[in-house]
Automatic annotation (TrEMBL):
Native organism taxonomy: Bacteria, Pseudomonadati, Pseudomonadota, Gammaproteobacteria, Pseudomonadales
Superkingdom classification of source: Bacteria
Native source organism of the sequence: Azotobacter bryophylli
Membrane-spanning parts: 36-60, 67-90, 96-119
Membrane as UniProt keyword: yes
Protein name per UniProt: DUF423 domain-containing protein
Amino acid sequence: MLRGFLLLAAFFGFTGVALGAFAAHGLRARLSSEYLAVFQTGVNYQLIHALALLAVALLAQHLPGRLAMFAGSLFTLGILLFSGSLYLLTLSDLKLGIVTPIGGLAFLGGWLCLGLAAWRLG
């Protein structure tokens, strides 16, 4: 679990920075300001949750039970669904409807699992 979440954190951190730079330099002239803001929202959530994955990887060794693993899995799912759907929307105008909110719920579930794991520490 430690290695997997560390690798995911590194991957999502790297690609988040790359996508942010791509948006700032390569998409500014191609996207409307509204779509550029939507793309940037995807990048921001990806980077925040890449750091959350890093924290989960490091904390999982000290938190009892499977809640930390669930948190990391939900953060990963949230990045893929939430940020991924925003990237697809802005780059291809493909609207995935319910996918973005499901990704947001995955983020919330990840934070809830992390909080419950902390609560169990006593």
